[in-house]
Amino acid sequence: MRGYETVELSKNKGNLFAVPTDISFYIICAFGVLLAAISKAGFGSKVAFAASAILATVIDPGQAIGIMLPLLLLMDVGSLRPYWRKWDMRITIVLLSGAVVGIALGASFYRAVDADVFRVMLGLLTLAFVGYQALQSVNWIRPQGKGFGPIWGVVAGCVAGFTSFVSHAGGPPAAVYMLSHSMRKTTYQATTVIVFFIVNVLKFIPYAWLGLFTWETVKIDMIMAPFALLGVWIGVRAHHWMSERFFFTVTYILLVCTGLRLLWVGLT
Asked: What is the pTM of this model?
């Protein structure tokens, strides 16, 4: 295939990694990384999975999540300092207790299915997320008047751990639980930063075991690292001055297109 070099990605799954040499891939990747970093550093990580979804439209989903995990960790580290100790520790512990189980389930699930299943699942998750947010915006779905209890927090953490493992889409289920507690903007942001920093650290070993990291993904990560740091810098500042409505409106339009594209590729 013109513009790609084929190398082995994983002996366990027998995938081949087409290493892009076409500049269009890096433009798409840089855009996705910037969007994810701005979301993680400034807007609660709800759409940080967009980068993986965007990449999954042009490469194998396993390759996409393997590329993104080191970059997400870099974004997490860059976001920790401005939000240090501003998180809600009780909610953090509740979510993480469920996330550990979800990560284990995600690792088991990953070995059992092929790439098109992940494309379809990621496409459905993407469209479901946008649909949920749209229903909230017209008050068809309203946040709980009283916060969900710890049991529901563990369930939300488990779902977040699972979806985070298979698609880096753990933000939405965690957000539903946290928003039910009417957290302040900065407390909410800080809690998502620490929760998903720890979740991403926990994911690193099973990702390596599954063969999702190669020298080729490392090379791409090194090229994309400046865009991750730039996105964090923008996100921290945008947290205070950019309209959330504007940011999410643009992002949701992009996610609808991405979700439909993933479904088309996965089903056909």
From this structure: 0.75
